[in-house]
Amino acid sequence: KRYRKVDEEFFEELEEILIGADVGVHTVLDIIDELKDVARTRNIKDPQELRSAITEKLAEMLQKDDSENKLNLQADGMTVILFVGVNGVGKTTTIGKLAHQLKNDGKKVILAAGDTFRAGAIDQLEVWGERAGVDVIKHHEGADPAAVIYDSIQAAKSRKADVLLCDTAGRLQNKVNLMNELSKVKRVIEREIPGAPHEVLLVVDATTGQNAMNQAKTFGQSTDVTGLVLTKLDGTAKGGIVLAIRHELDIPVKFVGLGEKIDDLQEFDPEQFVYGLFAGTEEEEAE
Amino acid sequence: MAFEGLADRLQNTLQKIRGKGKVNEADVKEMMREVRLALLEADVNFKVVKDFVKKVSERAVGQEVLKSLTPGQQVVKVVNDELTALMGGEQSKIAVSNKPPTVIMMVGLQGAGKTTTTGKLANHLRKKQNRKPLLAAADIYRPAAIKQLETLGKQLDFPVFQMGDQVSPVKIAESAIAKAKEEHHDYVLIDTAGRLHIDETLMDELKQVKETAKPDEIFLVVDAMTGQDAVNVAESFNEALGITGVILTKLDGDTRGGAALSIKAVTGLPIKFVGLGEKMDALEAFHPDRMASRILGM
Ligand SMILES: Nc1nc2c(ncn2[C@@H]2O[C@H](COP(=O)(O)OP(=O)(O)OP(=O)(O)O)[C@@H](O)[C@H]2O)c(=O)[nH]1
Ligand SMILES: Nc1nc2c(ncn2[C@@H]2O[C@H](COP(=O)(O)OP(=O)(O)OP(=O)(O)O)[C@@H](O)[C@H]2O)c(=O)[nH]1
Ligand SMILES: [K+]
Ligand SMILES: [Mg+2]
Ligand SMILES: [Mg+2]
Question: How far is A278 from chain B (nearest CA, A)?
Fold first, then answer.
């Protein structure tokens, strides 16, 4: 049905859409409160008019200025980017895609096979290295990830690489030992290259619900996450939790993953993302 | 506030009511508001939450609850009972075909844990039932997927059947079953590539594998951290393939795991096992009562 009025029913519907998009009930309630204020102060009675106010508001929440979804690439010297996240979200795949993009931009890229734990992880990264046409530095399965990263930095330095992309094993944020291991990896990077890592990207699967907030909090505490990559947005999940993460922790989204192919990585576009939150609900309303 | 235990929250609500001497329907309504929040924070699908809250509210305003000395606890108990009932009984039995080999297909979204769970399930079948499974590598898409399964097979000392990544999964499944017959394996576990439920080409491929392999079980592997979309995914896979059971992975994390409830409520599919780690012994039978408490944060 189409709404003729901005009333309680309208806001209830909006609440359901946002909760259904995984935004999370607390953030949704905050958003609805603010929108009610907007409707009151601007005296908006027409749902269509409020709709554009909603889009505007949510896009603003996601991006405060235009530069924040850009990668912090160093003008001179090497840029080091560390990828972290829970199991199976798309870290290794995103590294392959980003390596391809950066190489196309004329950068010399090297990949560090810092996942020495998962079966087949090193081989998987090597396939991506081949696809992107970039070198991979690796040890054997079971090796110390900090040692792999250390060697990768030395190799990247001597080969005069522009960007080093570091893969890590997936880990659930409540595993204290594994989180400590990750902090250690980060300290190695900090020690070897002052100012690095220049980005710590937390990869979040759009299919994930409220747990992504815990992921952002805990990975944030142990590795100072600088941005998110939201993967698997090519499915029907909306990835609304990034709104809550931005709202509570102020971490911006930098990239979105839209498939399994090497070109399926895009810079985050807040308007398009918000449009996606409501996609599929418009038609229902129009019926 | 988020992820705070439901029991605590209901107690708090009750504290406010206490002064008033009696608990009435409005108070129950207020408590059910907390229940709704707890379920939503646990990622239970909002439509499932709506139905559930409605049903439980009816029971909760019943005399046995309102007249009791501890109405707060009673509401919690009603919610917990209903949730446990909804999630079904323990069902860790795996089908056995009377014409061996028994064929099991693993399906699901990308990164859910299919390959890892294939290894775990083989290990489980050997340990608990003294079976001798053959693992079939039918993921020809993900980089190094075959290598991943082979590594697990080697770790566990199970043979892995593969034909490289240039042969169709249908052919691989067919040949794996023939091989299993020849070598007297009683189970064949087919690992398939992760795919989106809306990817028609790849969903059709699974249907063809099913037609050829005639599996006795098709397990949908679901990440316990999944949010509101879990029901779409489960419904689509079930419609396309006729799923026989769900395996919930990564429950060793701190997710509430409301996806379990959503899937059970919407599809009726039994949840058979849960994955509790990356190691090959981290697979357990599903316990509905534990899951209910976890979703509620108790
Ligand atoms: N549809 C879709 N699939 C994706 C996307 N990104 C990654 N994948 C798939 O998700 C699965 C897991 O990706 P990986 O890159 O191995 O994830 P990971 O985080 O490195 O996993 P672990 O190292 O095991 O923790 C693979 O099947 C990928 O092809 C995406 O944007 N869309
Ligand atoms: N902590 C934890 N990790 C798990 C569990 N099950 C799987 N994993 C991890 O999740 C990640 C993905 O597992 P895979 O078995 O590769 O998933 P998949 O469904 O085969 O992935 P695709 O083939 O790419 O679709 C890996 O890092 C696994 O180690 C579990 O129960 N607990
Ligand atoms: K996942
Ligand atoms: Mg990886
Ligand atoms: Mg797999």
Answer: 14
